[in-house]
Amino acid sequence: MLQNRKLLIIFRLIVGGVFIWAGISKIADPLSFAQNVRSYQLVGPALSFLTAIFLPWVELIAGVWLILGIYPKSSALLISCLLLFFIVLVLITMARGLDVDCGCFGTFSRRADWRLIAEDSLWLALSLALLFSPANDFSLFRKKLSKT
After folding, report:
1. Domain housing 89
2. Quick check: is 144 in a domain?
3. Which residues fall within 8 angstroms of residue 107, CB to CB, at 6 or more apart?
4. Confidence of residue 141 (pLDDT cuts 50, 70, 90)
5. What percentage of the chain has pLDDT greater than the value 90?
6. Which long-range contacts does 31-36 make (Cβ < 8 Å, 24+ apart)?
7. 90, 112 Cβ separation under 8 angstroms
8. Cα–Cα distance, 70 to 93 (Å, whole number)
9. Could you tell me if residue 16 is inside a domain?
10. Is the predicted pLDDT of residue 108 greater than 80, yes or no?
11. Does a structural domain hold residue 138?
């Protein structure tokens, strides 16, 4: 795995920044995001609204924590799981023949298509590198072990 700490910090800034941007854009307009969630035709209106309220905050917090080094491995794991879910969701949506707006970045969103899967796969690769790299240990909460 990667041992270059500077490169890993760049990965953290990129992936964390993407998730901060995604979270903030959805928090700014939860009703539009709820409609985006509903357009995937997997959940009803009530669950779409709850998702639109809850998910953006999870994305925002995970992105901030990843950048700041607050539980970086846990943040990378959460982001990796979210990205994997998003990729599978888009694949299912495409297989069902639905033409939907991804809802990824609020008003900057676009079609859920192969290009979106490629981008999410790139973010997933960076996030997995952060998750599995032993050099990604810079953390605000890192405990120093004392030698006795």
Report:
1. 5-132
2. no
3. 25, 29, 32
4. low
5. 64
6. 32/103, 32/106, 32/107, 33/103, 33/106, 36/100, 36/101, 36/102, 36/103, 36/109
7. yes
8. 34
9. yes
10. no
11. no
At 116, list the tokens. 């979106």
Confidence of residue 146 (pLDDT cuts 50, 70, 90): very low
CA dist., res. 99 & res. 111, Å (int): 7
The total domain count for the chain is 1
- Provide the 10 A C-beta neighbour count for residue 1: 12
pTM across the whole model: 0.86
Q: What is the DSSP string of 36-80?
A: HHHHTSSS-HHHHHHHHHHHHHHHHHHHHHHHHTSSHHHHHHHHH
Tokens coding 110:
């676009």
For the record, the structure tokens of 35 come out as: 């409609």
- Establish if 62 belongs to a structural domain: yes
Task: Output the average pLDDT for the chain.
Answer: 88
> String of b and e for 115-147 (b: at least 16 CB within 10 Å)?
ebbebbeebbebbbbbbebebbeebeeeeeeee
